[in-house]
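#struct-help
A.M.: can someone run this one for me? Single chain, 335 residues.
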Amino acid sequence: MFKRILYLGYYLKNMDWKKFSLFLNHTSKLTSRSKFSLLTDAIASVFNYNISLLEYFQFRFFELTKEHRKTWAGTGYMFEYQLKMNPKSSRDILDDKTKFYRLYKEYFVHNVADLVDLKSKPELVQKILDTPSGKLVFKVADGNCGIDVQIEDAKKFDAKSIITFMENSQFDLVEEFIQQHSVLNALSPSGVNTVRIFTQLDDNNEVVLLGCRQRISVNSDVDNMAAGNMAATIDEITGIISGTGVYSDITKPDEKTHPITGVEIVGLQIPFWNETVAMVKKAAKAHPENRSIGWDIVITEKGPGFIEGNHDWCKLLWQLPTKQGLKSKLEPYLH
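D.P.: on it. Structure tokens below:
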């Protein structure tokens, strides 16, 4: 109970009150329930089901029975689960984008460099500056959800000024802007549409796929759901998108086709699917001290490559596209 009180305090402190008000008003009109009734139910759900206040709306608890509510993995539950699967002593290789790049370099298909590389490898600097896309992506080592990412024209820099810019702006990494596969570019050209695959190591250190999702940008240069974009389920065997695009914003409808490009989402075949799954399964075994990882993968004309790995992978991206709670998939590993 004490821990749940602390969690409630955390949710209140970090609340997006504009979004909370939007969801509360929308749900009150939808259900004809008073805001007070919904608010008290949301607070009770924090204690009873270990979810956040916003997740009460995103998981549509206002429509669910007690038994169905128990199936959802919320923020509190996932924090405890991921802390056990990916201990603080080992998760830094996923938290720090520079360390991730160095340890998983073999799985990258685009040029990436940190400040050490830029100062010691002039040939790499030139490759990055000569990127075919003409754009560069600057990142901080510990950024999440597309935060602290800046896209710039490569022509603005030379070998010296790019280092100065990164030092003055406190960026840790620079990458060439990735040119995604034509299939995904046709789906949404505004941003790179990454695949997210969730992996879990079992007791025998074999890789279990917990789910596969296609993130879909909607008039945005990032593809995170938190930035207003969509996600859809991918069949892990075939690599075909099997569900509609869904938002984390409960006021927006699901999409069978992309709202900007008109490309059909359901039935879209993700290119290089077998290679993508094989790459993830190999990488998931490379550092078994981290047992449950959400991998962000870009699909290019040359094949798949990593963007990053997440120890605190998103429960919304995992569950919302399936429209069901998936907590039962995790419980076998909590022993």
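A.M.: thanks! The chain has a mean pLDDT of 95.
D.P.: also worth noting: The longest strand covers residues 207-216.
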